[in-house]
Protein 1
Amino acid sequence: MVKRALITGITGQDGSYLAEHLLERGYTVFGMTRRESWFRHHNASHLAGRIEVLFGDMTEGVDIAAAVQDARPDEIYNLASQSRPGESWARAPETLLINGLAAIRLFEAVRHACPAARVYHASSSEMFGLAEQVPQNERTPFNPQNPYAAAKVYAHQMARIYRESYGLFIATGILFNHESERRPLHFVTQKIACGAACAALGIVESPDLNERGRPLVEHGKLALGNLSVARDWGHARDFVRAMWLILQQPRAEDFVVGTGVVHTLADLCRVAYAHVGCDWHAHVVSDPALVRPLETGRTVADPRRAREQLGWVPAIDFETMVRGMVDAQVARLRSAPATHPD
Amino acid sequence: MKKALITGITGQDGAYLAELLLEKGYEVHGIKRRASLLNTDRIDHLYQDPHVEHRRMFLHYGDLTDSTNLIRVIQQVQPDEIYNLGAMSHVAVSFEVPEYTANADALGALRILEAIRLLGLERKTRFYQASSSELYGLVQQVPQSETTPFYPRSPYAVAKLYAYWITVNYREAYGMYACNGILFNHESPIRGETFVTRKITRALARIKLGLQECLYLGNLDALRDWGHARDYVEMQWLMLQQETPEDYVIATGEQHSVREFVVAAAAELGMQIDWSGSGIDETGIDRHGQVIVRVDPRYFRPTEVDTLLGDCSKARRNLGWTPRTGFAELVAEMVREDLKSAERDELVKRHGFPAYDYHE
């Protein structure tokens, strides 16, 4: 029998990779999206016609209940999110509505309409914040450092409560940073890839604007926040495979998904600019205005459970990922008109 | 004159805190929800006729789910202190209304913090967030202190956990004077009638006077650290009078089971209870052989919190906290007050007038 999967956040990086992964495995894929998001260019545009689109807004419980009813899914992947921790300071209430309350609306819909469905909920390594323990595993206490992380803790704890209280199959993936050429431009990794591409092509004023409406690269410089920020970065294509594996297990559990290898933003700059034969020091500046009010600490995954129980090992390493992102930006800047961050 | 704004002023803590602040000379503003029934019983003795001069207590209609309203009230009042005591505060009910609980308890706290910033009051207004021992849930350490990791077990507790973290985040990011009081259970004669302690004292008083036959309870072995709300609101005020904002556990450090609470309340009424059976068949029998306590599984929570015990040494050290009212005294006071109202009902009934029956 053909399995049916419902993905919220289908137009995002993870949603589009996951949809491809499930289509390859013969699933019927339903994607929930806001009408206005679907009708502009996005990461899942190339999947039009191959997936069923359900229009709805994650801040409206009725829309979520309707999507669950229409899709009658065997598996649900809840990826919809206000996905920018730094921006969550300026958008704290909205972030809680989408990242926190929408999740429980979905869990309630599952409880009443399709209690046998398996649910994957996207939790985040941001929940660890200033963790006292390095690396972090499934038992590390949370210490969220921004409204995004606090909202993710909310949804993560509710996932556990729905699992324990009602016996629903609700599993979570505590995903560490995962990037790809599909990352929107306002993510720092993609900014760097774009900056390196500009350097390669000799562009001193990028056609792309940053969140403050200024060229991303201005006077030949890319402005970033705190460059000593250290993260565990993997490739999104590897991570969506982990999501799928998490729902194929006999029991619903929480899984930390990350590479276990840590790099700083400066490392990322070095690899990206070196790929196009440039020294990043000449092109990147640190702007205090881009530093977050509170910084997340050193987050690095202890992915032992994912490796042992899911057999999950990332296939794409850091350097390959960064170079791929830079190549994609070079190709885009050579051919395409500018896109603006949404 | 200092001005304080209290959300949840119509609740148990709101009423005690309003009384305390009025005694201390504050101008007190409270937010109450419009409801179909009058909901100001607990503060009617403090409320002043709107026509008298030099009033020091004011009520505003409002709701933690209405940000426009919160911004307007805070702007009008320009409070020196805000006590966020308003909440959907019933753990079992939160499983029925998880979304509303999050909206009022989690987003509600955030809305106030945002309003303070938006109005440019970060340096003037101090913020108290009513956090809860329910954050500890499935306890990771015994007893629980400010450094114990949280493990919430209900939609109520998770919503309160969000409010806890967002309060910490806003304090650290924006330098606001904002703090969490992690209060263990605190009770009083004006505790809501559906909370287990009040349910017990009220039911036993009514059983004693023949107004009710039986008391139905959930988990009799749940262990809690119970203090008196009057003592606890003083700590809420003290937390906002320090040099630096910090989070504090407020508790008695003493633990009793629901069963012990029942026995103590019954003894106060001169009733003796013998327990028989076990599990959901356990019953409490009085000396006339009547079954007056039964277990009803409908009062079990989908996920239970079995034990809570607070370590309040930080509050003891920094705030000079010592709980004044002990367990026996708390139970006695609650029973005394509920016996009075049961006597009134009994009198009314005896003279042929209707007295209300109470059902959850």
Note: The first helix of chain B runs from residue 12 to 23.
Protein 2
Amino acid sequence: MAVYILRRLVYLIPTVLLISIISFAVINAPPGDILSSQVQELEQQYGPAAQRQIEALRTRYGLDQPVYMRYFPWIVGIITRLDFGMSFSGAYGIEFRPVVDILAERLGYTVLISVLTLGFTWVAAIPIAVYSAAWQRSVFDYVFTFIAFVGRSMPNFLLALLLMYFVYTNFGWSLGGMFSSEYVGQPWSWGRFVDFLRNLVVPVIVIGTAGMATIVRVLRATMLDELGKDYVQTARAKGVPEWKVLWTHPVKVAILPIVSTIGWMLPMIFSGSVITAIVLNLPTIGLTLYTALRAQDMYLAGSCVLVFSVLTVIGTLISDIILAKIDPRIRYD
Amino acid sequence: MSIPKHRNWMLWFSLAALLLLMGSPVVAQQEVLSVDPDLPESWYGERPLASELGITEFSESPLLAERVEAGELPPVAERLPVDPPTIEPLSPGKYGGVAHVWSSGHDMGVDDGRMLAGLSGCYLLGRSTPDGRDTLPNLLLGWEYSDDATELTLFLREGVKWSDGHPFTTDDFLFWWNQVALNEDLEPVPPEDWEPGILEVSAADEYTVTFTYDRPVPVKHLAFHKGIGQRVLNHPAHFMKDYHPDFRDLDELVAEAEEHGMDYWDQYYEYMQSKNYPERGRPVMDPYVIVERAPTYADFERNPYYPFVDDQGNQLPYLDGVRLNIIADRAMKRVMAFEGAAAIAGPHLFGSDIPLYIDGEEEGDYTTYIWSSGKGSETALMPNLNHQDEAIREVLQDVRFRRALSVAMDRDEINRRLFHGMAEPRQSSLTSDSAYYREEYSQAWIQYDPELAEELLDDMGLVDQSGDGYRQLPDGERLFLEILFTDSPATPVLELAIEQFREVGLDIDLDMVSRDLMVERRNAADFDISEWHIDRVTDNYFPHDLGKTFAPTSSQMYSSWPLWVSWVTSAGRTGEEPPDDMKELLDWAREVFSNPDEEERDMYVHKLLQAQADNLWTIGTVGEAPSPVIVANNLHNVPRHGMLIDDVDWGSVYFPEQFYLDPQ
């Protein structure tokens, strides 16, 4: 087992490197760069000389270098001293800021929202799926199936808008951001904590719903598969209570494909919720990636992608380890 | 752009749907005025000094008084300049309160922040009058030209201080010129190219600084609100010296830069020079100083050294602070404005949403003010006069074609359907407040006359030879033009316009691209017709800056003649040499910039304006459109009318220092 994990960890390095190369190349592929989004501001400052100023700045920021000359110092900086480079785009136009700082102030919120969302998804999805499978074609099965399909197909941001509207009109809460305005920037207190939870409900539901629908469908299908098998019949024939029949064996089997989704669930929750994050104004890394891409802030965008890919790889590793633990059919070599 | 376009569209669409859900439109009819007639007269004159108003005692916010008490700050009289300048508030204000504004990350401080807080530093040294016709000394005591207009002397007020209490003196001007402007690392493009003609900056004493030019610069003081004024205030000498190799050991400085993750001192200098990070501690001259910076907001607190007082001797600003809430997308700003979450909102709200905003007033506890967009045209067409295809270029360079396009448009329909009839059908020219405005310029070729359009096109030999309903080039080749633009409020205007072009047999379609691609294609003159709004047509800029439409002197990418601008601004190194009629425009422009005789200067201004009205280098649609400004009912002293445009720094000429909130 230890050797298995170690080997997987070693594989992880080239995988992440490869991802970083590809993503950096893709980020740099579109025409223009961070400065082309600043043309208007620079025209105001430099008038007719704006174009030449842009070229001069390109040299200063090293944007005139070929992609690989920008990539190597960046990746070397990350490996040797965890220096993710500089972000150029500030809220006020061109501004220098270490990428690490930007990621650091958002990582906490991102992880928190993700973990809560994942928890919400699982806690809600598994019982529903088991119920739907056990009482197939019952009224509730149809109701849940319907909800699951709606949740799956409705764009997240639309659901976010509708919920925001619902909450605004019924409770009078304006849900922009992690805190209501009176608590922003205040030290932690009970009131602030309650407010924080209140503001988290909508994002967690919105981001969680899509994932939940998928899990319900997958789990229900595998459960149905399992329920028809002989060992279930045997258990029933032996007089084992129905709830025990369900939860001891078929669920354990049916949950395996869900476990293997951890790998991609994490980054999906991080990044897939970009539009929701825009609508709800959440300070997540997904949102940072979105704005960085729009501004063509290459080191910031590249670092976000790198963070996501590391998470994906680690997530996959974790799910593999769990699977190896709970699924006796998996071998280590 | 890596984010699929349609996602944005979906977001826009659903936001519109949300606004519709929240309230149904009512028809609004209000007059669009760009200047509030009830502004105090003193706003049009030089700042009265405290002594002139008989003020001997000064007071300050209780918040600052506490800090004085605690010994953290010197008393208010010592913080203010000697005989401080006064600003007459619209109504007597009260101290206190934190005003909330919403700004999308990219715009932060660029519009909403400026509007409420004057955070840009524009209009500090000199401020334009509310009508934009004149620039008056503000932070400066005054200025003076030498007789031949080659020397401009600025007089500083004694005792003006940066937000850390350090005096603002001619040192700051000299440092900016000698150590920043002339430093090749910090300003790789020499100042000659962006502030032409400066030979020397010298200081007679701490409060007198003289700019010596190699030519007459009769209107140069206008540059002091945007150009030089803003630059000087960006480099407080006493603070920035610590990061400049003229005052530090270079190796040491580079080592420090590397510690911060930067390669060279110039990057480090730029890093420290940013005023938007409290931990870097860069002092400012603005009314507010940043005290906290988080991913979703930035908090600003009053500048205890702000040098202005009201007409009773109370130090401004009235507000204790400003919170800029940072949101990810401009569209969300509109929702926040509608919910009444902002003390003031205006930039990037749409005139077409006015009925919705009015509908939400009660719920959101705000009032919708109607300001003017301050634009000569909200949407203007720019036929590519440098088109690379010879046959097409010939068509676009033909004035008959441009006139045909202009009269083929039904501007009344555009106005009625998209601006609630509140905008002005206009040609692209100066706004009606300008001292140079004439109706014959703004009304040239704007009549809706499709028959005339057809006649002009027939005359050019552009007729429908194939019988497919569209006109072909004289040699029978297809005449197909695309309007290059990026997703913006212009989209519906263009959609209406191309319908109207098709009715006179012109095969014109829309080509919506991402902003980056648009920039690239415009600079390379790789388009048929492009679209942009006509700004810089108020007296705040004009004729100091000829903007986009009067002569190919600047604004390469927002013009009909990118290659000629490129040729002019690069002194012939790039672009294409303009033909003789263009060179005539350039000659006139030169006269406008440097002829010391005001009457002659004005004559050339009108020559340029007439040339645009005759030739339609750019073709206007409707302009001076209504711009909603959402003002919370507890925020006072915001003018009822005004201009919402960069020309007036998004409203910072309306003295945001004197806005105040009801006490809690």
Note: Residues 1-7, 23-28 of chain B have pLDDT under 50 and may be disordered.
